[in-house]
Amino acid sequence: MAIPVLVVGCAGKMGREVIKAVHAAPDMYVIGAVDRSHLDADAGEVAGIGPIDVPITDNLEVSCAMVAQERSPGVMVDFTHPRGLYDRVRTAIAYGVRPVIGTTGIAPEQLADLAEFADKASTGCVVAPNFAIGMILLQQACLRAAEYFDHLEIIELHHDEKADAPSGTALATAQLIASTGKAFNPAKVEETELIAGARGGLVPGNIRIHSLRLPGLLAHQEVIFGGTGQSFSLRHDTTDRSAYMPGVLLAIRKVLGLKSLVYGLEKIL
Known about the structure:
- The chain is an alpha/beta fold and 269 residues long.
- The protein is built from eight helices and twelve strands.
- It has helices spanning 13-24, 43-47, 60-68, 85-94, 108-121, 133-146, 168-178, 245-255, and strands at 3-8, 28-34, 56-57, 75-78, 98-101, 125-127, 151-158, 201-203, 207-213, 219-227, 230-238, 261-263.
- The strands form two sheets. The chain has a seven-stranded parallel beta sheet, sandwiched between helices. Strands 8-9-7-10-11 form a five-stranded mixed beta sheet.
- The two termini are 22 Å apart.
- Pfam families: DapB_C, DapB_N.
């Protein structure tokens, strides 16, 4: 049976892409659309695909209750702002709606609490810092490169409307590399920052992340490894938000078979 999908943040740039992708998929349909703007407008018209008979509302609980009444288990897709994300996910799980979350910036302690809540409810949940398949492949390549290089730094570049820094994807990449247990970036000299933050942010694993925010960018990440007489760079560039949609649709299908929270798209590939 087709999967009913509730899209939260449906009037945003990512939300509109989700509306288009779900509407075009043969095994799912848009059942509800939530946003604080374009209230009562048709979600399809806002997304640019014409009317789909789904009005935009700002009431998440009513929308989740509507999804829960469908014959097939439903999914909530959220690409919004980290503010209020914790409460939105708990609300969805309480109604038996499976969350697929692309919003980044949620606190680790909140993520741990949501994982416990989902586990107790035996309800699947997918939280992914990045839904681009190419980025997942980059991260896997980083693990291989980390076997041979002791020095690396991460540069992430995003549009100037991104609220959190560093990006969730950069943090996830650093955490994945650090999980090898290897000691990276051994000091050669005693560094002095003439301007605070000039060397970027330092995360566990002794890995530095540099964040750029500029108009004209969308989402980009480069991991640069350095060694004696050589450097090795891995880079992923997103030039259109449609790049995330295959991963989003995959997560919508996969989350129905889960009984707990899964962090990272690579866990369900």
